[in-house]
Design brief:
single chain, mainly alpha, globular
């Protein structure tokens, strides 16, 4: 990997992170903006700070992206592969952002990596680690246990938890108030709005931390993998002393992710939120179900709990899926027709198509690059 290709990989990875901010950081603050607890500007500031905190906590997800999905013994994970993977994910993210669909940047990146790896080996699917067990289930690697299973189970967990938390709040406050017309008025009374307006600041901060722990780490893994590869290939031996921070010794399984990579990824993601996240915020916070502060608190608490748990075990789950599912669970706790199911249907289609389409785009880009180099 030449220094030029390394720089290109880092730049494209940061562009992907910026666009990720359109999608997933916007999702993490959608409810607190929609409930009018915070203005978009203050919500972005909260997201930036809490993303940074979360990004500095652990590296399990980054390790999964760097070493748990692509078999380095079958395919050389070089700059060309990483660039095509990132471009495939970025193109799909831009398409869904333009349409206002909260699709998963996480799964777009995984799809891009898989599609690029398959193309780089001439169509061999063994370039992907599908499932590789460890001593315990959470210690194994592979697309199936680390991506596919959590892709299904984490939104279900978010929906159920959102439903239960919202239902529990209904039961608690119904016991303290006149039950006549309670559900109709619930969430709009001054006391409940004031109480959960403050509580939602805590739940929104938890969402930001969870997002940093999971999503920011995905790009960290890509950048650190590129730097480690260039260091191992002695491409960075002649760098001046002031650029020595670019060297990362070790393999994909053993290298440490530098603090500067974590900080840069978190800050770029926050900038992406400020640059264009409102389209997604409108879909989640306004179109899918009407939210009050207590609803936002329940949705954020539920999704943050799921994402933080996944991050601890190195599972690159989708913030989008979990926030969306939690909001649906919160809406369903009131009544099922509170959810605008036509909007949900469009979102589900975006979820289903993300992995294969981002993989197909990356696959095509690798083939084009290979033909161009002949």
């Amino acid at each position: 990997m030449s220094l030029g290709l390394l720089v290109a990989t880092i730049v494209i990875a940061l562009v992907f992170t910026y666009i990720n901010g359109f999608h997933d950081t916007a999702n993490s603050i959608a409810t607190v903006v929609a409930t009018k607890v915070l203005t978009p500007g203050k919500a972005v500031l909260l997201a930036a700070v809490t993303n940074l905190v979360g990004a500095l906590i652990g590296t399990a997800v980054a390790k999964t992206i760097a070493a748990g999905l692509i078999d380095a013994g079958v395919v050389h994970v070089g700059a060309e592969l990483l660039i095509c993977a990132l471009l495939g994910a970025t193109i799909w993210n831009l398409i869904t952002w333009w349409l206002g669909l909260p699709s998963s940047s996480s799964h777009a990146l995984v799809g891009g990596l898989c599609g690029a790896a398959i193309a780089a080996t001439g169509g061999h699917f063994d370039a992907i680690i599908w499932s590789r067990g460890g001593a315990h289930w959470w210690q194994g690697n592979g697309v199936i246990p680390k991506v596919v299973v959590p892709m299904v189970t984490s939104p279900i967990a978010g929906f159920i938890l959102g439903f239960l938390v919202m239902g529990g709040l209904f039961a608690l406050f119904a016991g303290l108030a006149n039950r006549t017309g309670f559900l109709r008025r619930f969430g709009r009374t001054p006391f409940v709005k004031a109480l959960f307006g403050k509580a939602q600041l805590v739940s929104a901060a938890a969402m930001g931390v969870s997002h940093g722990m999971n999503d920011a780490q995905k790009t960290m893994g890509i950048i650190a993998l590129a730097l480690a590869g260039a260091t191992a290939a002695h491409r960075l031996d002649d760098l001046p002393a002031w650029l020595s921070f670019l060297r990362i010794p070790g393999t994909a399984e053993t290298f440490a992710i530098p603090v500067w990579v974590k900080v840069v990824c978190a800050l770029v993601m926050a900038a992406g939120t400020a640059g264009g996240g409102w389209r997604i915020i409108k879909t989640l916070g306004h179109k899918m179900v009407k939210l009050h502060p207590i609803n936002g608190f329940a949705a954020e608490t539920s999704s943050a709990a799921v994402i933080i748990t996944a991050s601890i075990y190195g599972l690159p789950v989708s913030t989008t899926h979990n926030v969306s599912a939690a909001i649906m669970g919160v809406g369903a706790a009131k009544r099922f027709n509170a959810i605008r199911w036509t909007v949900v249907e469009r979102m589900v289609w975006a979820w289903i198509l993300t992995l294969p389409i981002s993989a197909a785009i990356a696959w095509a880009l690798v083939n084009v690059a290979q033909m161009a180099m002949k």
